[in-house]
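Example record

The entry below shows one chain as it appears in the dataset: sequence first, then structure tokens.
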Amino acid sequence: MEWRPPQTLLVTGATGFVGAHIFAELLVNSNATLICLVRCADQADGVRRLTEVLEQYQLTSACQLLPAMLKTGRVEVVPGDLGSELLGMSQWQFDAIASSVSGVVNAAGAVNFLAGYLDHRPTNVLGVQELIKLAAGGARVHTLSTLSIFPPDEPAGRLITEEQMPAPDQVAGDGYNRSKYVAECLLANARKQGIGSVAYRLGEVWPHQSMGVANPGSLAHNLLYACARTGCVFQTDAKTDVTPVDVVSQLVSGAATGDIEVPDGAVHVLWPRTLRFAEAFETLADRCGLDHVAYGQFRERVEAAAEFDRRLAGLQLLLPAPNGNGDVAPAEFDRMFTDSSRQFDTERFNNHAVSLARPAADALATLDSYLTGLADIPALVPQER
């Protein structure tokens, strides 16, 4: 490997799903010094949180390496808050980190589709603003964004390119997507001032292809989890794109260390695969022995089971009421999910991610270990009324 000068990276969001995988990739497969900004009471609490999340996602190599790297100082945990001024640090600590880092990897973010823009603004907008200030001394900012800043309607003709930004009136009205759009605008303005940055626009990020441990905050995963938990599946035309988290983490960590050359601007991190939930349901039904029921009955089972399983409570609030006899999921349900694989151009991703694993033959093959793991979830089937 070509020799590179020592690097120091500030990493935010390492206790989240994508962030934990990026942190693990940097820890195991780079020599960079990692300063982890963690929302915690103190350093010991931050180390505990980092360790727990690495164990949760079965990132064993990173978990085993972490204690030694903390002792040598290659990993440092800094208590802070992305949504606060100076990232929740003192001025001297902020300045010290700003003078030492060569890059910023921002994987943190507030995500609540039931909340408005003002709820997302502190972390997703003002936090990026503070990171830009910190990077003003010459660091490059790598931040996670979303393809959903663009409207979900199919474009007429050409694909949406990585150079494009939606017009303000085209951005979805929900608080999360609007906050991510504003953050990208801040980064674009900072690039004009000489502060380099890359925005990684993500679609649906799925479990690691080997470990198969899902993001508990993913709507798509919670739907499949609900099917396994309630012992049933239903008819739907919903579909989504499928990009494994290990592909995302390899790209972002490689770009942050310079091992993968990614130009300033946006990158559409997206595999050319479509997952139809009907096909996933059939596979899940075969492996778990699930019932085929009407959508309305599935919704009733989720509502009943949510009393005993808090993970289903959030999904219950999002499920639209059935139409007609309720056999097939309504169009409102199908629109909760988006297949971006045919809407976006991925030229930069394709050109600069040559070292990443190639997509599996189809989406179900990509999710094989994950779907196998769902078969171990005990069904909680309430008595039908």
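Notes for this example: The first strand starts at residue 8 and ends at 12. The chain has 15 helices and 13 strands.
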